[in-house]
Amino acid sequence: MLGQTRIHALRGIDLEIMPGEFLAIWGPSGSGKSTLMNMLGLIDAPDAGSIVFDGEAVAALSDDALSDRRNRKIGFVFQNFNLVPVLNALENVMLPLQLQDVAKREAAARAMEWLDKVGIAHLRGFRPDHLSGGQRQRVAIARALVAHPHLVIADEPTANLDSRTSHEVIDLMEKLNEKTGVTCVFTTHDPRLLERVPRQLRLSDGRISADSYTEGKSR
Amino acid sequence: MSGGLFSMAWRNLWRNRRRSFATIASIAFGLAAVSTVAGYMQAVNNGLGNIAVHSDLIGHLTIYKKGWQTEGKLHPARYLLTEEEIDRIRAIVAATTPGARLAARLSVMGLVSNGRQSTIFIAEGVAPEDMSLLRGPFGASDEVLREDSPQGVIVASGLAEILGLKTNDAASILVSTVHGQANAADIDIDAIVNTGNLATNDKWIAMPLELARDQMDAKGRAEALTLLLPVHGTGQPLSGKAADLAMYDRFPPDDAAMSALRQRLAAAFAEAGIETDMLTWQEMSPFYTQVRSMWDMMYGLFLGVVLAIVVLSVANSVGMTVVERTREIGALRAIGMRRGGVARLFVTETALLVLLGIATGFVLALLTRAGINALDIRWVPPSLSKDVQFYVGFDPLRTVLAALALAALAIAAAFMPARRAARHPIIVSLGHV
Predict the structure, then answer these.
(1) Do B1 and A43 touch (CB under 8 A)?
(2) Would you call A98 and B4 a contact, using CB atoms and an 8 Å cutoff?
(3) Over the stretch B260-270, which tens digit does the pLDDT of each residue have?
(4) What digits encode the pLDDT tens for the residues A49-58?
């Protein structure tokens, strides 16, 4: 709803994403990218139609069950990083594991492993306000992947980063996608980043206007 | 997550230090105020109770012959306890209530004269050694009848002033015997004391029991037996400030203890065929009971106001925190924290705030108490004729109950905004600016 007007952010979307895909969603502002990402990330629900995640219809799940699915199967990378300011880098990455009641020692070891993979193990003791934008986004990527999710949702992960750091972040996601086989879906406005992605989905006025694959990049 | 949750909650407390300190201070001041008022009430209640028991010489339990209170003044000869009854009651009390002491009492009313002027008096006839016992540890030795002075009396300062009497002066009394005849005697003024009570200070006299019996022509008899429990030991009488503090800090036996004692003695007297009426010290001192009820009402009102202020302060603080952290809540929910987890996080933060507030409040209460008592503020309470210290005691039960009520209400106040935050749609929270 926008005021008293009902807005349809998405219309007639029919989309299948296969395990291990690396997919970019793009389109003009207001085209429905974020709404689609929210639905893929199980933090929003459609008024009509259904979402099947990992073979499970999510409409029937309770709020707690949805929380558990997000915690165990989905990793989020936000445009504004959304790290917890009172936790340092290591503790932020440990958080999804601690929500699963993983023992503190094991959670710390696994979080360190991921901080190392994203190249900022040496910054583990720093709180977010002492990290640069790129460093924060690396922490966010480590947090998104630490629980071995099936899907990583990144809504404009490079919007607040400079060009070089944006490419580094996409490089990192690409590398992790190749190594771990995790499905990655991200949105962007940057056409240079699209060339790097095997599958691109274009949204216009809430509809899929193009679903294309880059030659030689298909997985 | 419990360890992580606690750690996160603790760190979140210090994100807005000024607000947290303000909330802790409101809880601490609230608790300190409640504890101080409760301590003052307790000191006053103890003081009034001890004044009734020891200064007014009513002891803990007064035993009359059945019917004395209704018919005794009209037919004193019939309703005074006899020597034989007194001995039997003493034996029963000694057997059922070890350590308790009994003092025979006989009150006398009449006229006292300095030779030129006369005025009414009400005298308590009590044996000197029993008076010393009834005074307990609170009375100064010069307020007790002397063993070596059979005609010696203690006169209230107001009465002495009316008749222009001084210590060692002589006076005359005129009373009516139990048979209705007039009887006069000379008395010696051994001491002049302030009874501490405007209602009695212009007419009260203490005289030896034997002098009262002679005047009433009631040899060996007593109007009542006053029982004193060994609650304060039989130590040396205290004086000055030590007596004041003991008066405030020592508890007279409460209603339940007195009720149990009366029931036990009533059963024993009934078994021995002695018919008695017994009044507890609370029943003998309606002023004490009324003041205590008034305090309870005022305390309830005060506690309610303090609780309301603290709860509003905590709810406001948590409400502001929730608004500020809406996006963070959305992110936590997105990565899998359940609604219950979000609510638990805020409730844990509030519980920590409350804990710190209560701990600070206890310290503040002790410092306030020590400060007020050290200042030795003195004042004259209503119906008393001498000043007393404004003394703050410590009431652990009321303080702990107030702390628990504060904690429970503050956490309940935090739960509402926390629950609202947890139920907020995630996408709305994430979009919050």
Answers:
(1) no
(2) yes
(3) 999 999 999 99
(4) 899 999 999 9
